[in-house]
Structures
1.
Amino acid sequence: MTATPRRAGRRPGTSQTRQLILDTARRHFAELGYDRTTLRGIATAAEVDVALVSHFFSGKQRLFAEAAALPYDPAVVLSRLLAGPREQIGRRLADQVLDLIEAPASRGRLIALIRAAASEEGAAQLIRERINRELLVPLAAGLGSPDAPLRAALTGSQVVGLVMARHIVGIDPLPGTGREQLAAAVAPTLQRYLTGPLDDV
Amino acid sequence: MTATPRRAGRRPGTSQTRQLILDTARRHFAELGYDRTTLRGIATAAEVDVALVSHFFSGKQRLFAEAAALPYDPAVVLSRLLAGPREQIGRRLADQVLDLIEAPASRGRLIALIRAAASEEGAAQLIRERINRELLVPLAAGLGSPDAPLRAALTGSQVVGLVMARHIVGIDPLPGTGREQLAAAVAPTLQRYLTGPLDDV
């Protein structure tokens, strides 16, 4: 009943199997969250033996780290973001975040990472390091703004909140709001956090 | 070894025991997240039999719903928020959110709720209903702004993101940022989402 053509075909190579496990893991982490994702569940969904999952990835934390790793080089993204006009950095960053959520290479990774950060310190640390320290702090500093760490953290709060509200909590109408409208709505917030006044007088 | 003076004293009344379980549950949900909180762990920490936890609260979901229930009447908060000047609603809402996080009666509840929303649909639903539909949507509508649902959802994204960044992920320097500075930094964002232009032209 559960036999599939794939099982009957040629045995997939090692790197394909590894990739299959990784893709399945990413989907599980994004949809179920960290705590409810199990190596056994991933193995079942990927139709491989659970021992094979352990063979490729030594444990859930390692598997998560690789599955949720953001597929970008912070230095490259940073220089691209800093290349345009300073007064449009909010829009460029909003576009970058939406790109990351929608591109096939990264679909689900940012969601998995932010979902997991609610319970897993390792995921929270990835956000602090990969998103904040390696990207947002140098971005705020590169824009010549004082208080770069505070600006970066506020920027991160809106990015994290947008992903939470749109993809995890599902606050209507955000899940169905068009990309253009969303980027335009959020851009001035990111712009002010990165370059504008931080008080409301 | 584990005997405490409390055990030797007068047996606490039913309502005190119930309250003790509830306070312990709130702390566990806020610190551990939904999935890692167990009835047994709560019972152990509260020094009561796990059967007593089940007696008062029929299961983890019910216990969570009560532990994370926000201790306010949306109608009362709403009329208070709408009472002041329209152009200062962002600041009043920022103050309200920070009050909620800091007041003893609600300390931990908002954090527990948002942390749990990452994995537990019941918690996500509480946010959509109690925070968004009963408070933020009527607030945006009461301010006479068009597109009230989108405005409310964007507002919710920043509120959720602030709690995530400051209390759950811990993006420095937000955990140590003073209340006044934080309210001032976030207020213009909430103000624009609720009453300002939603595009960045």
2.
Amino acid sequence: MNTEQHPDIARLVISCPDQHGIVAAVSELIADLGGNIITLDQYSTGVEDGQFFQRTVFHLPDFARRRHQVQRQLEERLVPRFSMQLELTAAAEPKRVAIFASKTDHCLLDLLWRHRRGDLPMDIAMVVSNHPDLEADVQRFGIEFHHVPVDRENKAAAESEHLNLLHGKVDLVVLARYMQILSPEFLDQVGVPVINIHHSFLPAFIGAGPYQKAKDRGVKLIGATAHYVTEDLDEGPIIEQDVIRVSHADDVAQLTRFGADVERAVLSRAVKWHCEDRVIRHGATTIVFQG
Amino acid sequence: MNTEQHPDIARLVISCPDQHGIVAAVSELIADLGGNIITLDQYSTGVEDGQFFQRTVFHLPDFARRRHQVQRQLEERLVPRFSMQLELTAAAEPKRVAIFASKTDHCLLDLLWRHRRGDLPMDIAMVVSNHPDLEADVQRFGIEFHHVPVDRENKAAAESEHLNLLHGKVDLVVLARYMQILSPEFLDQVGVPVINIHHSFLPAFIGAGPYQKAKDRGVKLIGATAHYVTEDLDEGPIIEQDVIRVSHADDVAQLTRFGADVERAVLSRAVKWHCEDRVIRHGATTIVFQG
Amino acid sequence: MNTEQHPDIARLVISCPDQHGIVAAVSELIADLGGNIITLDQYSTGVEDGQFFQRTVFHLPDFARRRHQVQRQLEERLVPRFSMQLELTAAAEPKRVAIFASKTDHCLLDLLWRHRRGDLPMDIAMVVSNHPDLEADVQRFGIEFHHVPVDRENKAAAESEHLNLLHGKVDLVVLARYMQILSPEFLDQVGVPVINIHHSFLPAFIGAGPYQKAKDRGVKLIGATAHYVTEDLDEGPIIEQDVIRVSHADDVAQLTRFGADVERAVLSRAVKWHCEDRVIRHGATTIVFQG
Amino acid sequence: MNTEQHPDIARLVISCPDQHGIVAAVSELIADLGGNIITLDQYSTGVEDGQFFQRTVFHLPDFARRRHQVQRQLEERLVPRFSMQLELTAAAEPKRVAIFASKTDHCLLDLLWRHRRGDLPMDIAMVVSNHPDLEADVQRFGIEFHHVPVDRENKAAAESEHLNLLHGKVDLVVLARYMQILSPEFLDQVGVPVINIHHSFLPAFIGAGPYQKAKDRGVKLIGATAHYVTEDLDEGPIIEQDVIRVSHADDVAQLTRFGADVERAVLSRAVKWHCEDRVIRHGATTIVFQG
């Protein structure tokens, strides 16, 4: 159900060691506060042990004003009892997002356009690029564009500039075919999740020229994976994947075009789900409540 | 999570007009009874009104023995308060299923084989056919086969025989390419859900020879729809659909083969979901909790 | 193989009653002219009768200059002998296309972006709309935009204006969610193929509000069909179809968004294939050589 | 088009360095012999150089009797002129196939059923297994079953027995989840193509327990790859691939079941295309003419 327009809709995402009575305690508390549960998705990794995850969307009259009180109640009544991690958000308050791009436009334009149509519940705070090429495209959407060149010598300085631009302004960074590796220091300091998109093949091809390698090996599927960025490059928790069918008759240029199509679709879905608080990280994996 | 092996796993499926406190009341009651919720899927058709649906899978020590007590408690504490419809089942107790078939074997064999592998949580009570062709195949799986010929003259008598065979022995009837129309009287009296599979195209083709018509019209996708049978032939609530890509080079025989592939896959998924109590009928539609 | 950059690449698309020796005659003639076949796709509707179709891409040194000679030779040596219809085009010479749109931008923008990126081998001669809303978007791509309002009273006059705009300037008209029905007179006089996109469901829903109807019926797949426009509205030869999976949890707005995604993908593929001379109309169907 | 029933249908598959006039020479020769081309698929890896591939299906009256003459003509007139490799087969003469299996039945049974239904144009000469478990299933289809146990000590002897069983009796070996590695010596001596199926993931997981690893990594797609076996285990030319969508809620058992579904579908398609002479090996890749 589309609940983004309502100012009184809250989302609560929790995670804790499984035990009896969690759903009851949470739903009782929401009922006590005068709330009505609209959607509840829940998952446990085991029958009697393991980890418990829940996403609850509820309607609470006057939520905007009462938000801090609700947060306090949740923390007092749930956190100590269940050793719970919880996050309370307002559905009407969009995530603030920075998009990093380089020269290719397919992922960036898809995000900008879906955002303009109202399909992505987020505010785009800025676009950052190591190249100036996409500036005009971005500005036509009325969005700030920052050109921060990056090369081997200035990388640390460039990342400092990135951190200054982002500081306090964004809840999420999206790498929309940004062709620079982020340093562990940057990831430490950025303080918000970072989502990346990369091509994927069966089997995998390591290193440069993956589409040429895919062609040389005669793969029949071209794929893409959206994942959270960790220090293990291209190895963070997977949010979404998809593939597209190709044939021997497709040359490397055509494979690359198909790859662009699947990349932009997969990244847009991953960003949307993240902004709707549907994705919970759990070690090397994710729980994605698509309900 | 696979919960079919545990004798103490219960499933509760409920539906009622939406109001505050339903999730809380249900989860509190389960906690009071000593149960632990493993999976909870919930859906409402509107923010503050509409219909509320919930599927809850929970672990309750000694459930097999305590089942009637649990059922009574649920009925006393939930039904009057919420005008609730509820169904309590034991995950370890498979649905008893009758499969109706005619001459084509693809849907029937896929069900029998998946059942033998342990992929379908059901007991196959019998196979009923209006033709003898598939008898040997069925018996090799150690399953009863009943040949009940049907023609224009004996249709009422045949359906009486069907009702006698089924009476008290099954919880579900699956039409696995059964090429006879069930009468409204039969549907009234059978007392259990009936699932059917039929081919589907974009656009739809009415009447005989649909694959020839699909060929003549140059469709690029061949589909199948599994649905509950109602008196409106091929128009009952849809459980699952899928398609397969075809080309101008496929002749009618090949289109029919592709159709068989998608039919057996769609029917097997629909039967599995039904047997796991994942499908809730709601007027002309279904809620399917795939979590 | 990507052959669009080469000035000496010719495409020959033929159709005729099947008989012995067609492939031999065509390939011999090409060899005689000094050409080398790069790709040949061929299809017959029957073993010894029926209709024969062939798309041949060949390299012929100095083709641009010799094109008329080649056309004349083909006509003299093939048409009378085989009662053949043939079309000779230069791969390097893009089709000139007019795009008709109304207020929704998803199909239009997808075509404009892909075109800018070099993915669609066509020239966009103009965009025509019955509303002014998309003018700024179109002009940013440096493409002519014509606002031709259409209402019940001025429809004939508007279509005259359309014909004036198009006359001699385009090889194809693409309806990218153009929400006006073209009159039979317009279709008679426009003299070039017209491609349309529309939503498709299993089963089909006729009339207004199809996404609401799809929601009410609980469909699990949302589809789109690209087809050539004939006087039978939404019933012309199908070029391409695809679907996307949806669930009970998607509201009508979300179904409509999914519909937009599949519409733009299907339309872009259909336009690309048409512009590459891969699509041959044959009565109510098409042959699509995707090789 | 379905051409398997016709005794007079020939298939010619050729490969050679590209040069002018190949299509013409082949089609002329077929016309000279009195044949009529039904389907012609052709592909070159480059515009003016590279490798040329063609699959031609043609009708030739009295082909069964004239086959050796046709073969001789092709060899005399085409091989020296074009340095051509060619293979001439009769569509009505099915490939003779040996299926190797171990304990899991999903791939094996799918092949046996499709074969019985007439969907796979092949004769199953025998099933060979290193375990006795599937014997009853195989014999019900009236097919020879050979139990050849394999362990570390007797591997060479077992492979000798395999070679004896296969010698002169089969045109293709299909590994339907056969859990033994074939030695380079066996591959050298078997003298016919060997097709294998294995699971595939994005990213790839090496070694034992791949489904557990896929679960631990949170993959959203489970795939399978059918390929020709070479000495590089799981690295031979890819014939077909496909994937199925999974979610965090699927446990390892369910992932394995989905894997089985996609494996049997992919293997059956690969075997069918091979038996229809649609697959041409070219170094590490394949050309697959699906027309």
3.
Amino acid sequence: MLFLIGLGLGDVKDVTVKGLEAIKNAKRVYLEAYTSILTVGKDALEQYYGREIILADRDLVEQGSDEIFEGARTEDIAFLVVGDPFGATTHTDLVLRAKQEGIEYKVIHNASIMNAIGCCGLQLYNYGETISIVFWTDTWKPDSYYDKIASNRSRGLHTLCLLDIKMKEQSVENLIKGRKIFEPPRFLTVPQAASQLLEIPDRRKERGDDYTAYTEDTICIGVARVGSDTQRIVSGTLRELTSVDLGDPLHSLVIAGHMHPVELEMLKQFAVTPSIFDALLAESR
Amino acid sequence: MLFLIGLGLGDVKDVTVKGLEAIKNAKRVYLEAYTSILTVGKDALEQYYGREIILADRDLVEQGSDEIFEGARTEDIAFLVVGDPFGATTHTDLVLRAKQEGIEYKVIHNASIMNAIGCCGLQLYNYGETISIVFWTDTWKPDSYYDKIASNRSRGLHTLCLLDIKMKEQSVENLIKGRKIFEPPRFLTVPQAASQLLEIPDRRKERGDDYTAYTEDTICIGVARVGSDTQRIVSGTLRELTSVDLGDPLHSLVIAGHMHPVELEMLKQFAVTPSIFDALLAESR
């Protein structure tokens, strides 16, 4: 049996009791290590579980599943995923390959940013499509998600923005020379993402777009290390979020749509400038 | 400190290690008992935690928070919620009232249907706005969510439909006479919701709507008791789902939007009629 086990978002103790039991009973334990991270590393997990952990990078998961699946018809293999196991397409793909090999699987769910983002105070059923914001380079500045934000906001919906993670990047030189040397991990931060977002409306206007999805005054929320003891939540205008320091990864960003009074009250708790939310609350009543 | 603790979706062992520790250390333990249910009841939780549990119905949570908050400035109170604590507005409201009383709070996240629905194979970032489908009566058949489904599907997005729960309903007679006698709990099932959905396009056409959000051939997915050992997932046309029996509650329904091949492959595993998905896969390639 292949167990796909969500670890939640914070630290070692965010695993469920069911998940912990499955980890302790498994023949081998893999940790998917390229779509997300906890606030603690492999060593802390190994110590807490009392089990050796094999790090599974993209190559192993996408091309080395024979190794992961070895013996899984008769023994239990644990595949750990930060958040919930179905947060990324790559895990659905792993399940499909397991099924093809005649291996049964079981999922042990956990919190992921897709539902834990509720902590910022905006109601989950008021969110539209989730988007991903990637690191811009000097020559590559994709902004197709701008249309999705516009579509969400035109319906009054909030937009959760997942921020880019680069876990095992190669420099162009190392890539060309085929050297398996990797750059240190990089994580897009809330101020970086906010700065990129702030550039898009003008770029789009120059290209002839006749609508504006948001402005520098649009209310946004930055969150960091959700579920951990060092969790941070900050609400303010998009402009304000370009200069907040939320510390270590992971960060996520929300672009608010229409806000109900209860949502505004909650956001006010995390405000850079509370008076902005007092004004919005006065308007909404 | 007020601890809001998500219990996840299945049974007693879906609580996180962090959540379980907080429950064991709390002075009093409340279980919110009107927005969702686990596959096990209060007795099983009490036995597993080794703690007495106080059931918190809507009246207690919305009007009796003084009782819940008693002593919370100096002692720890645990407030348990099925799924994740921020699944319903009522919990955000509770947090705001705690803050007003000068009580600190901490959230221990867990899986909820909002992210665990990933188990059906449709990718979470391809979902649009979530809707709620309520029980229809002979005289009250609300269908405003039809426009939201249409809006999601016009953008190729999937729609998660949360199905109605009636936990402490009073009959009209008992309500009028002020008798606190409650009907047995009722849970909208997948076939009931599918039957209601199937009626709406014709009703809307009669009222002059010029668009169709879906037809009886639209692919839908029914799920039941997600995360438990008796979990069921069934995929098929909306028509097919009007006659599947998924057993005990809770049920949820998904109306698919545009489906990628990996999504179709996954849905095929749960199909009433696999050949329908073979045909869709052939088209998509």
